[in-house]
Amino acid sequence: MASLHQAIQDTAVRTSELWIQIAQTDYAPSALEHQTRRVTELSEALDKLTAPIKSLDQDRGTALMSHQRYRDSVVRRLAYRAARKNNKYQAKAASVTAEYYEVLQREHRAKEKKCALERQCEDAVALVEDLEHVASQHREAQAELDRLWERVFSRCTSKYEHQRALQQKVSAAQDIQRQARERCEESSNNVDALVGALGRIAAAFEEVKKALIQGQMSGDGAETRSLQKAQSEVDSAQCLLRQAKCDQESLRAIEDLRIASRSQRGCQWDGPYSKIIWRDRIRVSRRELEICHMVLKRSLDVARTRHEEAELALEMSNEALRTSKESLRMTRAAIYLEIAGNEALSMDRLEDISRGSLPIVAPPPPYLTAC
After folding, report:
1. φ and ψ at 25, to 5 degrees?
2. How far, in Å, CA of 8 to CA of 341, rounded?
3. Whole-prediction pTM value?
4. Which own/partner contact pairs does 271-275 have at CB distance under 8 Å and 24+ positions apart?
5. Which superkingdom is the protein from (predicted)?
6. With 80 as the cut, is the pLDDT of residue 228 above it?
7. Domain of 243?
8. Distance between CA atoms of 326 and 330, rounded to whole angstroms?
9. Per the domain annotation, does 325 fall within a domain?
10. Is 294 contained in some domain?
11. Are residues 216 and 136 in the same domain?
């Protein structure tokens, strides 16, 4: 017991400093998340404005040409006057002019909106950079406090057995979270591998179709080059799936796949029916690619479902770990105050301070909110 008392007394000042720092910077993680979303929203809004502004610019150019034709063409004006259609000319000119100014105003409003969004985005990005620095300070202070208390409470006696039980609960939650993260990463790799393999199989299918067409049009070996490209795509897909350790059905479907080649046995290429046999083999390869694509697509649907389940499990494990760590910090804070008797941190504010939900010295700076 004496050793625990002494360790807490020795670290009392640093613990109080870290508590205050954590409380003062606690706003940063949530504010950073909010502002990051804000930057994403503004960037998407800017992207959406690009196409309409380009279209309005083209419309303005067209309207300007029509406006100039009626404004500057003396021949057109005289032709209308000679035909005694001067009123019609004036009405048409007014209509064209009004249309031009309307397009011009729409373009101006769109560009003003874009400029305003760009300024907001710049401000949001600058604030994100500031918040990242404060959030980093918050994480470092919390990590240092956790390491400090790990050393201090490693000497905890049977009087504080509940602290030891909570510590074991945190360790178990960390193991579960690590396993969930590994499963999530593996499922994400499988999804990426299957997406890449599907793209390569689709490219191989196009090359095989090209080979069938080229074989009908020329005899210069172009179809052979297309089939070699198809085999290269298949080889790349096989490599992707093997590296990602995908399911056995996907691996079997693609490992058994071989694109037709003139080097294969069982065909006499100098015989009268060699071209017929050769094209039949290409058609077989095309059909095998279709089957392989269907198998991989089915496997991709399953892999995406598993990845979503893994992501949900990871979120739950993260929340369980956060809750268990929070309970352990609260318990250790109570033991700390019981032994150290720090008058600066009263028990009625212990929960708020230990969670860092109340700033002790200064409030956090304001940050941008969504429009």
Report:
1. -105, 10
2. 10
3. 0.62
4. 275/215
5. Eukaryota
6. yes
7. 181-315
8. 6
9. no
10. yes
11. no
